[in-house]
Amino acid sequence: MKNIKYSILLVFLVYSTTYCRKFIEVDPPINKLSSDIVFTDVETATSAVLGIYANMMTTIPVISSGGVTVYAGLAADELYNADLANVPASEFFSNSISLTNSVIANDFWLKGFNIIYHANACIEGLENNTYLSSTVRDQLLGEAYVSRAFIYYYFVNLFGDVPLLLKTDYIENQKAVRTPSTAVNEQIITDLKSAQTLLKTSYPTDGRVRPNKWTATALLARVYLTSGQWALSEQEASSIINSGDYVLEPDLNNVFLASSSEAIWQIMPIANGYNTTEGIAFIPPSWSAGQPNFPITVQLIHAFEEGDLRKIRWVASTIVDGQTFYYPFKYKVGEYGEPLTEYYMIFRLAEQYLIRAECYAHQGKIDEAKNDLHMIRERAGLPAEPASTNDELLTAIANERRIELFAEWGHRWFDLKRIQKAAEVLAPLKPGWQPTDTLFPIPTEQILRNPSLTQNKGY
């Protein structure tokens, strides 16, 4: 990624940024470099696709780099906002998100469509491309499909129905209506299946910072789990687990390192002296005597079992004015200027074990489910799960997901909705909770620009 030709990508990035600022009211590009030029050369075509990841890995929490973890964690029962001056964050924590919330408008909606637009531009330049070798073309096209599917997965789970934009035609996009979430999910699956056929199991460069076949498979397993397609989800997760390409890190301190053996896809930070957005968001700086910005809730702290190594390795604390504040410590680097040792983890092997365990349980394969669950618990220093019935096992798996995947990509928020426990868990904790809070609002500015867009219920 150090070899990205920013002069070539500038046209894509500037245009897509302009596009996303307006989203609906976008003018034709004044100086758009022809994709016929960009995608006739291996180096510039590769640079264009690598630019997607540069676009994703920002230094602030957005939809692709920490934003989902922070704000969905606040919306669930994982984190709380300690900085009352941070009004957008407070709205997530109270589940009373305003229609003008800047995080929703800029960091989620506009940033997400910015990345989608960038991916679409690459897909258009690569589909039916005869200038590049089939090997190069397939790898780059597969990566672009994964990137588009990845953002749409979060869009549909955060907002529900969203505009499904598959082209860079600004005239058509400016009239976009909300596409039913079922159709969006179908497109996500189509993109991921296409990526599976195009990508190899090996990574195209050192590290695991560009998608391979298993990256597409990991997201596909999650999509099938979300839609309750147990056999298909089990199949996808099993293919990753049985590949032998990934191993659970024995030491929990190593899970989120750049060299992690269980990483399926990571994004390499590109800003000098910068590791991960989450590390900086969660860890109080050494020069500050204040409390962390987003402490862990008492409910989550109490959910850890006695002796769980994940609490010891992945949770840190600080005492301020006699009060102890706990905060996520999966990433250990929380300041600028430190050596680059941590890459931003997107998919990892532990999640695939938990996905397969749940699918097994739903299909009555109790022993198989318990074996997968044991893989995760054993690493955490815990005994085997004693559950013996399907219902007990599903409850145990949900609890294990809560602990293993806490403060990580909004898993808890999505799980509460997926297993239909959001109201049961959150209503007693959140005054004013209403069932419609499970979806975030469509930014009001976008509805004003495009009357074809409608608002989610409850807003």
Produce a short descriptive summary:
The protein has 459 residues and is mainly α.
What does this structure look like?
This protein is mainly alpha-helical and 459 residues long. It has 2 domains: 1-199 and 437-453, Serine Threonine Protein Phosphatase 5, Tetratricopeptide repeat (Alpha Horseshoe), CATH 1.25.40; 229-419, Serine Threonine Protein Phosphatase 5, Tetratricopeptide repeat. 50% of the residues lie in helices and 5% in strands. It starts with 5 loop residues before the first helix and ends in a 10-residue tail after the last helix. Residues 1-33 have low confidence and may be disordered.
Low-confidence stretches: 1-33
From the coordinates shown, what is the CATH architecture of the largest domain? Alpha Horseshoe
* Shape annotation: globular
Q: Which whole number gives the mean pLDDT?
A: 92
Classified by CATH, the class of the largest domain is: Mainly Alpha
Order of helices and strands: HHHHHHHHHHHEHHHEEEHHHHHH
The spatial strand order of the largest sheet comes to 1-4
Q: Got a strand count?
A: 4
Kindly report the CATH topology of the largest domain. Answer: Serine Threonine Protein Phosphatase 5, Tetratricopeptide repeat
Number of helices: 20
Q: Return Rg in Å.
A: 21 Å
